[in-house]
Task: structure prediction
Amino acid sequence: MSPASLRLALLLLLAAVPPMAQARPIAPHPAGASDDDASDFGRDFALPYIQCVPYARKVSGIQLYGDAHTWWDQAAGRYARGTRPKVGAVMAFRPYGAMQLGHVAAVSRIVDSRTILLRHANWSPIDGRRGQPEDNVRAVDVSPDNDWSEVRVWYAPLGGLGTTHWPVEGFIYNKKPLANERLTVLASADAPKATYTSRIGPDFLKGIVPETSRTAARKPLTARVVVKAEPKPREEDRTLAVSPSLARDPIGRIIAARVR
Result:
């Protein structure tokens, strides 16, 4: 092959190979991406990558920002918080294992005292891709006291609940906290009530005599007492016996005689 033919073959071969910038594989979403740039990250790719924080904010209406593990403390004084699920509330997960930034998910339905459905994003890899939303997937309370402090969550690759017991801070409700509220503890999904700190000290009843003790002190003796009958007063003395002051009040004596 002549030198000219060799150069032509090399040029044709180089033209068929894509540049290195085009051959580089698409990198996964950075694990430490903040809430502010998460929504913009998907613009660089054909398919968007949805983070859990902006998705939970959108579906719940709770306007908190920043990494998921900061939501529970951020909600203090701004939103009511508690340990019982309610539709529309956000379940705040604690950081655990590889989930270093925590997680947030919105409650879409309450099935029973141990089962709810969630709407969240960036939990299960679906078709090999993370950063996708999942709606109405199961979460089951596995805490010993049924206080929703530990849950198992539906995991798409398994086609069922995952085996990990994920720790949960609690639920953030889309409403203002009550005055002097420590935590809004829901007795049920539809009956919210607040828990307040009692101001009654242990010595509140100190020195108070119970009513039963006073009644017992006034109870008459059981011994039989013989009372002699007094002689019947005369008519002219009856008026004076009503009150000593009537002896000096002639008008009072007349009124007393009429009301007898």
